[in-house]
Amino acid sequence: MPTHLLTRCRHRPRPALSLMDGIALEQGRTHEACGPARHSFALWLAAAAQAPRPGPVLWLSPARGGRQPNPDGLAGEASPIRFLFVRAARTEDQLWAMEEALRSGAAALVVAELSEPPAMTPVRRLHLAAAAGGRFGPAPLGLLLTPGQGGAQGVESRWHLAPAHAFPVHAYPAQGLRTGDGATAPRSCWTLQRLRARTLPPRSWQVTQAAAGSPLRAAPPCPAARDPAPPAQGLPRSLAGALPRPQEALAAPAPP
User: Fold this and answer.
1) Interior angle at CA 153, CA 150 and CA 157, nearest 5
2) Global pTM?
3) Tell me: the pLDDT tens digits for 37-85?
4) Which residues, other chains included, contact 110 with Cβ-Cβ below 8 Å and sequence gap of 6+?
5) Count helices and strands in the chain by DSSP H and E runs
6) If phi over 0 gives left and psi between -120 and 50 gives alpha, with beta otherwise, what is residue 41?
7) Which runs of consecutive H residues, i.e. helices, occur in 105-254?
C-alpha cells in the first residue's frame, strides 16, 4: 500500500501525459519501460506527447547493440520527422545527454535505450533535470528502456509490455462481441503491466489496437489469461488461454 508523508506544503498533482484511458505518466519525471515490446511503449508515448506539446523526440541508443527504429515502422505511430537519433559510445554519455536534453526542455520526450538499469544517483539527476525543463512550458518526460524486467532504482514508474497478438479479445462474449458477428478483430494486442509506481499499485491491462495509428484501448486481462479454463460456448478451443499468464515475478512490486 502506498504511503504519503505529512508536510506543511500544499500538494499539487503534477501534469500527466495520458497514454490511453486510465493510463497516464507524470511529466517532469523519468519512467522505465522493459519487456520485449518496450520500444512500442516508447512510440506510444511519442505519439501521445505530440498533442499537448508538439516538438522533437530525442532517442539515445548505444553505439553497439542498439537498434535504431525504422522510419517506415515509426510512421504508423508517430511522424518520423519528429525523431532525433543519437548514438553514444558509453552509458555515461547517454545519461549525460539525456539529463541535458531534459533540463533544456527542448524535447517533449527523451528516450534512452540502455544495456542495463542505471543506479540511483543518475536517475535522481534525471528527475531534477526533467522538473527544471518545465520552467517555460509543459515539463518533458524521460523514459529509460531497459532489458529483461528492468530494475532502475528511483524511477517514477516501471512498465512491462509484451506482445499477445494471437489473442482475439473480441471473441469473448464478456467483451460484448461474439464470434461470427462481423466485428473486426484487433490488429495487435499486448499485455501491459505496471510493475511499480510511487502512488499506485501494480496492475495489468490488455491493450488492443484496431489499425496502425488508431487509438489504443485498454481493458482488464481476460479471465483466460489468469485461469486457462475451458473455452466459452462458441469459442474455438484453439483460442482458449492464448494470452500468457502474468508472471509471478511481475505481479509483485519491484524494490525501489
Assistant:
1) 70
2) 0.77
3) 999 999 999 999 887 667 899 999 998 766 677 888 788 788 889 999 9
4) 57, 58, 60, 98, 101, 102, 140, 141, 142, 143
5) 6, 11
6) alpha
7) 120-132, 223-226, 248-251
